Predict the structure.
Amino acid sequence: MMLKEGEYRIPSGCAISGFINRDGRRVNGSAIIQSMALMQERSNGLGGGFAAYGIYPEYQDYYALHLLFEDKLSRNQVEELIKDNFYIEAEDRIPTRHVRSIGKAPLLWRYFVTPRMAKIEESQETEADFMSRLVMRINDSVAGAYVVSSGKNMGAFKGVGYPEDIGEFFRLDEYQAYSWIAHGRFPTNTPGWWGGAHPFTLLDWSVVHNGEISSYGANRRFLEMYGYKMTLQTDTEVVAYAIDLLVRRHGLPLETAARVLAAPFWQEIDRLPAVERELYTHLRVVYGNLLLNGPFSIIVGFSGGFMALNDRIKLRPLVAASCGATLYAASEEAAIREICPDVEKVWYPRGGEPVIGRLEEETQCRLSA
Amino acid sequence: METLNARGLHYQVLNETVRKLLDNGCRELVLKNVNGQRYIGAGLQGQARLEIHGVPGNNLAALMDGLEIEVFGNAQDGVGNTMNGGTVVIHGNATDITGYAMRGGRIFIRGNVGYRVGIHMKAFRDKKPLIVIGGQAGDFFGEYMAGGTLVLLGLDLPPGKPVVGNFVATGMHGGEIFIRGQVDPFSLGKEVKAVAPTVADQQRLQEIVGEFARYFDLEAEKILARPFTKLIPYNKRPYGTLYTY
């Protein structure tokens, strides 16, 4: 009997890479693909994906829903749901081109939508909560339909294949973004399928991850109490929802959220000055269940920035670099030098020390105007 | 002396070419434009010398036995993984698990190193691995170390920065670590104690630092002017009583 992918085990790898032009300069997907291709050895062709920010300026006020359908029935059901709840400004198939190494793809559609006011009022929720709940509802209750991304002026593109082939398949050379993050997958514990490729997303958040979240069960149970539904069969999903909960819903600064996910050890907390000691003690007590245990290096994309972070004992590789207005992070220094040979500064963040890049303030204003 | 342009070459092609050149009697080889190619020098034996310009990929000099490699640039993870003999000189930084399970030979790094450097290094009879680091080191320095010598110099340390991270030498049960300057007691693993180097240690440090200084054109006397801390394990079998029944 032939075993399906997911029923046997392959030793680990994974590659991540990302960059942000802090001056808002938008570039096409060629560079990020090139950076990923250099690390091909880290992937095995069972998953590749990208998130790009700033790609839909003409629809920047609409949520860009990227969807994956396994059949027409699921598409009809989701479209029904969307029409009930949203005004649709535009919809089309996500453009792809034929790539020999990419097998049969699911149906890939995108919708630029804005929620119907009456529906939001009826739900007595914020617009973002309303959106987030709809994403959960599609993933959880429509068989064969999954939301690939749901933010504004951003999109995720992912599937089964090497990242450079997935990038070619999705024609990423035709998109212009100020920030790109990417992942090459080497699945170890969970199946390699289109929905299980990275990035994992919710609203503007996107997460790519190398490693494994051993605390998945504890994290999942905690997040479920806040209405999140884990449906994508991969541990990284909890990271996206944990950041949404901590930063968007609970209002923690991103830097503080990083110290929840990769919390300082108690012995380090004991050595801190009183005010900080109290803060970190409270964080560990309140959010103990969001501590990510196990090895990880992640890059988190969001509107206007990205954050790279390692687990607190640095069990996965992560290198950061800068050159002019561009900030880079990747699994290997060579992946950065491949697209920026004259990089000005290279550094190696410590375990649990976030590297955060944001658009300059002026750029942020210009882009959202 | 032969020169090879590595730009765009897959690591398999590059390493096959290197091996072929060495097999055909080449004794000095310069690799230009290296970027991310893995396993350079891996498993190679003999007396040749490789000069690498760029950033070699993971597992540089893994299982290497003999050879001298000099890197003008930074190296990535796993330099000298299970290396058996030879010398690696790196003018930039090296990252995590440098000298992983290294069992012989020497690695000299001018810059900083990442986490878990020297993890499970071991020594046997005349095989005594040595790693010398010019800058600072990350957490778990010398983790589970079983033999050999680690020397950490902390040169050009920014003010307020510790020379080494936390959990130093956790699980260490053999070998020795020399760190220039003081180490905060809280950063030491439970299995090691800090002692003053003996006269014999001082002499050996003079030789080691002298060699390091020659590779990187530094003044050994200046480096040696600051006293070293020596770390040794309390016990050869720290976990000997952990799994009792």
